[in-house]
């Protein structure tokens, strides 16, 4: 019988094994240069080193799967293999990094697992930000910003290394450590809050040996959802810090000396037909995509949720009127409704957000109504009424909190759809204003140079896919975590 | 034998009057019935007013009320309710004034009294032959007599159509859905028209340019009826949607509906191929993934499906063109009606999202069904694994999949706008997008409305298929009476 922790390590290694091999092979494929056929030496080298790490990973997986393996009594060989794998991060291989730390640590808590991803976000941000060093100039705040990021990374690494022993520290130090941790969350690193919440919960008396039932705890078993969360946090941090560390002029100012450059170290994704740096444009595009995605989800979540709750709780005529009116809205495909609104009021970011929100209201209302109908038939609502609570108190305190889980899942998935819809409309020329660096706008230019400069269309597309994929992974993960049948 | 023949019409009349009684229990149906047989109801009304003074029931009610007050039960009930109210306030620790408590108690008393009296009256009715002389009773008694029945057919025959629709559950369900669809179509028209009407830009100046003379502007507004008040324009549009006449477009002077009808088949053809492609790929692979749950194939396939949901269709289209048209040269990059091969890429691109969500849905619903007890029974009977899956699991698993297809079809017709732009297909979607740049209000409006109508019809069909496939819904419809 394997312990829970042993199983956790095996699952993680199994999940990462295929990914690290795929990652290594990706580098090898990228190193091939067609016309004339040759290999790019640096890329080939990275690929080879990664292959080495993948080999170690495979070896460790093999050892771990033996029945003799015990997570709490690892042999020296296993520990050194795990320690070696952590250095995979140098070649950008985050999968061996995750596996390495998981296999190296003596005991695994929820907080530790989130800390691994938290540190990864910091590393990725610093790596992306340092690419600016190859630019002709940087912003005034660049050095300050970069040092803040590095300090954050150091602090987070310390938390990763020692945070699990938080219960043995004295209360004052605990409070300061958690406070500093929360402060570092201002960079946009969402995982910081999960780490802080986990350590705080672990630190409570009687928390040892408790069954892990919260969404936060169950999510750690879903590796794909964690990778999604990693990328979302990365992009959010990038969106927030880019204002200080990336020069906006590269994204919007025309530079006719450098038109349609191929990708190089100075312009990692090349330049477009006005000589603007596509890399910086994509980084700034994340601000628009994330804010439109989040707003176009939050507004219908509130309005649709409220309408659905009222409609489900009061039933009868109220329900009939609200749902029939929303049926009308539901009959118009979201994209066409957006086109109609843009045709009437012109293309702008505000109109885009309103248009997308309007289209999502009916589906939120339907979900909320179904949940509320289910909840209102339960005994505790009758109990609340018997205790003399009025409708408003019952709705706010008992109905809505218990009907929220499917809404959270739906909103996570909708952010992805909203990101796609935003870029689709911008691609058609109906979304964000054409001069704003937005992923759809970048792609629109890219589509004109598809034959000659395909990278202009490929990179922004990859950014969209990765972001949407991450939200879908996370949404699926939350759905599994909240599904009572899977417990 | 002969006796039965005589009784047959009587039995039939009785059936009709019973159906009328049941149907009248719903208020809106009852009003509909009265409206449709107005001349007949008028006759009934005259007789009813004439007979009213002979009503026995009024007297009965007053006797019972009197009894209730006299016997002291009334005062007892009042006291009991007041006591309950006091105990409640004491228990909940509320500070309520004495007069409020009494007011509440009085309120509850009035309700309880009405309930009690109604109960006693109903008891009396059941014991004696006296019936309340209301209008409904009068009507049904007319329907039971041969002469009255004949009169009702002659004077109020449209009523029988409604009665038939209301009394047969399946037809009633279909009729309800049709009415709901009509409501949605009118609603969509109102919303789209209002949104476009609220536009702050001046259509005439947009089309004619800044240099247009006042005369030209006036003429333009006259031709397109833009000077009329909102309600008049709205009415004209609603009427136009049903009579297929939405006037002429702002630009190019063409009939809007004629252009839409010319372009619609292209979009429908594209959507149809996309649907075919996605369903033929998604169903077998979704079922296979469910049967082989948690294997490498399952994980890989579900990952691909998730990518299918996450990929923006215009980017997928661009990458397809880059790979299959520019680099490999296998397929044409743009659509032409004569070449069916040029439809492959657009159909695949448009169908990807649908394929992915159908595959995911098929997998999860098949997985759910496979764990049911009756599948275990089927296996225990010794059926082959193939037969268990294909005969017992799949048909039940397909029910939610049909809903998903119906819902996703809406996203697909909307998404057609993007796909058509990428592959340069002259369908309805790209028509709306191109006209929106002008902005040519009647064309955009017509396109959006007719797509919404097409979707409503598709959803109606899906709903009907769904309800006839699913025995649970079928029985719910039958029992709804």
Automatic annotation (TrEMBL), chain A:
Bilayer topology term: Multi-pass membrane protein
- This protein is called Peptide/nickel transport system permease protein
Q: Where is the ABC transmembrane type-1 domain?
A: 286-475
Q: Which PROSITE patterns match?
A: ABC_TM1 (PS50928)
Q: Name one GO cellular component term.
A: plasma membrane
Family according to the record: Belongs to the binding-protein-dependent transport system permease family.
User: What are the alphabetically sorted keywords of the record?
Assistant: Cell membrane, Membrane, Transmembrane, Transmembrane helix, Transport
In terms of InterPro entries, this protein maps to: BP-dependent_transpt_permease (IPR050366), MetI-like (IPR000515), MetI-like_sf (IPR035906)
The keyword Transport is assigned to this record: yes
Automatic annotation (TrEMBL), chain B:
Protein's GO biological process? transmembrane transport
Looking at the record, the residues that make up the ABC transmembrane type-1 domain are 264-466
Write the record's keywords in alphabetical order, separated by commas: Cell membrane, Membrane, Transmembrane, Transmembrane helix, Transport
Q: How does it sit in the membrane?
A: Multi-pass membrane protein
GO cellular component terms, A-Z: plasma membrane
The record's annotation in SUPFAM superfamilies points to: MetI-like
The entry's localization annotation reads:
Cell membrane
Q: Which PROSITE patterns match?
A: ABC_TM1 (PS50928)
Q: Which residues cross the membrane?
A: 31-50, 147-166, 178-198, 270-291, 303-328, 340-359, 397-418, 447-469
The family assignment reads: Belongs to the binding-protein-dependent transport system permease family.
Quote the protein name from its UniProt record. Answer: Peptide/nickel transport system permease protein
Q: What organism does the record attribute this protein to?
A: Alkalibacterium subtropicum
- Lineage in the entry? Bacteria, Bacillati, Bacillota, Bacilli, Lactobacillales
């Amino acid at each position: 019988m394997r312990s829970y922790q042993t199983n956790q390590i095996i699952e993680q290694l199994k999940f990462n094994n295929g990914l690290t091999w795929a990652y290594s092979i990706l580098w090898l494929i990228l190193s091939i240069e067609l016309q004339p056929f040759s290999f790019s030496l640096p890329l080939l080298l990275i690929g080879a080193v990664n292959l080495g790490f993948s080999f170690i990973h495979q070896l460790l997986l093999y050892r771990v799967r033996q029945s003799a393996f015990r997570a709490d009594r690892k042999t020296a060989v296993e520990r050194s293999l795990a320690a070696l794998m952590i250095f995979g991060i140098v070649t950008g291989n985050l999968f061996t990094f995750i596996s390495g730390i998981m296999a190296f640590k003596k005991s695994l808590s929820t907080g530790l697992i989130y800390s691994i991803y938290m540190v990864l976000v910091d590393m990725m941000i610093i790596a992306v930000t340092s690419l600016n060093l190859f630019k002709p100039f940087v912003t005034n705040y660049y050095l300050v910003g970069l040092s803040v990021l590095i300090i954050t990374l150091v602090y987070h690494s310390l938390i990763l290394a020692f945070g699990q022993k938080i219960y043995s520290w004295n209360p004052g130090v605990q409070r300061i450590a958690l406070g500093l941790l929360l402060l570092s969350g201002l960079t946009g690193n969402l995982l910081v809050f999960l780490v802080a919440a986990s350590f705080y919960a672990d630190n409570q008396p009687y928390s040892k040996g408790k069954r892990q039932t919260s969404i936060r705890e169950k999510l750690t078993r879903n590796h794909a959802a964690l990778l999604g969360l990693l990328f979302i946090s990365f992009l959010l941090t990038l969106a927030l810090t880019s204002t200080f560390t990336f020069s906006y002029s590269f994204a919007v100012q025309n530079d006719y000396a450098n038109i349609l450059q191929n990708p190089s170290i100075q312009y990692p994704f090349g330049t477009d037909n006005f000589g603007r740096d596509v890399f910086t444009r994509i980084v700034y595009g994340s601000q628009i995509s994330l804010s439109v995605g989040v707003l176009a989800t939050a507004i219908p979540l509130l309005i649709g949720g409220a309408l659905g709750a009222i409609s489900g709780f009061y039933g009868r005529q109220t329900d009939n009127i609200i749902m029939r009116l929303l049926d009308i809205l539901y009959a118009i495909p979201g994209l066409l409704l957006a086109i109609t609104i843009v045709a009437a009021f012109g293309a702008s970011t505000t109109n885009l957000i309103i248009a997308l929100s309007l289209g999502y209201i009916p589906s939120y209302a339907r979900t909320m109504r179904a949940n509320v109908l289910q909840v209102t038939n339960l005994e505790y609502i009758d109990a609340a009424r018997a205790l003399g609570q009025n409708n408003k108190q019952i709705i706010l305190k008992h109905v809505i909190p218990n009907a929220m889980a499917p809404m959270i899942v739906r909103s996570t998935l909708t952010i992805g759809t909203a990101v796609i819809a935003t870029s689709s409309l911008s691609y058609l020329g109906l979304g964000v204003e054409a001069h704003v660096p937005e992923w759809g706008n970048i792609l629109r230019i890219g589509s004109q140079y598809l034959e000659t400069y395909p990278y202009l269309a490929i990179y922004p597309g990859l950014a969209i896919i990765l972001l949407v994929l991450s939200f879908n992974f996370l949404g699926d993960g939350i759905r599994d975590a909240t599904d009572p049948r899977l417990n | 034998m002969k006796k039965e023949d005589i009784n047959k019409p009587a039995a039939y009349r009785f059936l009709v009057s019973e159906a009328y009684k049941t149907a009248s229990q719903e208020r809106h149906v009852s009003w509909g019935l009265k409206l449709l047989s107005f001349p007949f109801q008028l006759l009934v009304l005259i007789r009813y007013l004439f007979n009213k003074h002979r009503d026995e029931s009024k007297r009965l009610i007053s006797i019972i009320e009197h009894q209730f007050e006299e016997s002291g039960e009334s005062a007892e009930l009042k006291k009991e309710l007041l006591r309950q109210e006091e105990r409640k306030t004491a228990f909940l620790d509320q500070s309520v004034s004495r007069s409020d408590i009494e007011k509440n108690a009085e309120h509850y008393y009035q309700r309880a009294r009405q309930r009690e009296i109604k109960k006693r009256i109903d008891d009396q009715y059941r014991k004696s032959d006296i019936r309340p002389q209301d209008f409904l009773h009068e009507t049904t008694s007319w329907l039971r007599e041969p002469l009255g029945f004949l009169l009702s057919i002659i004077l109020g025959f449209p009523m029988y159509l409604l009665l038939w629709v209301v009394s047969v559950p399946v037809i009633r369900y279909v009729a309800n859905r049709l009415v709901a669809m009509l409501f949605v179509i009118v609603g969509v028209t109102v919303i789209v028209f209002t949104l476009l009407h609220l536009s702050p830009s001046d259509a005439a100046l947009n089309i004619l340019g800044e240099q247009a003379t006042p005369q030209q502007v006036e003429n333009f507004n006259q031709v397109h009826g833009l000077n009329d008040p909102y309600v008049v324009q709205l009415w004209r549009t609603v009427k136009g949607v049903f009579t297929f006449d939405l006037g002429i477009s702002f630009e190019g002077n063409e009939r809007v509906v004629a252009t839409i009808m010319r372009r619609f088949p292209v979009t429908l053809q594209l959507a149809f191929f996309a649907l075919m492609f996605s369903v033929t790929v998604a169903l077998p692979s979704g079922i296979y993934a469910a049967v082989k749950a948690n294997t490498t194939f399952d994980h890989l396939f579900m990952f691909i499906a998730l990518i299918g949901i996450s990929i923006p269709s215009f980017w997928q289209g661009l990458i397809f063109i880059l790979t299959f048209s520019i680099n490999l040269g296998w397929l044409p990059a743009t659509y032409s009606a004569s070449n069916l091969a040029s439809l492959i890429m657009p159909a695949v691109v448009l169908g990807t999202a649908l394929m992915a969500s159908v595959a995911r849905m098929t997998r999860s619903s098949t997985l759910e069904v496979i764990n049911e007890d009756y599948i275990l029974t089927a296996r225990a009977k010794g059926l082959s694994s193939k037969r268990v899956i294909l005969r017992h699991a799949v048909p039940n698993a397909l029910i939610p999949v049909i809903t998903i297809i119906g819902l996703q079809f809406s996203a697909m017709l909307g998404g057609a706008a993007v796909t058509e732009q990428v592959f340069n297909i002259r369908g309805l979607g790209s028509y709306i997008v191109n006209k929106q740049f002008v902005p040519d209000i009647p064309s955009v409006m017509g396109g959006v409305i007719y797509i919404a109508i097409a979707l409503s019809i598709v959803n109606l069909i899906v709903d009907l298929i769904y309800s006839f496939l699913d025995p649970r819904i079928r029985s719910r419809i039958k029992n709804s009476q």
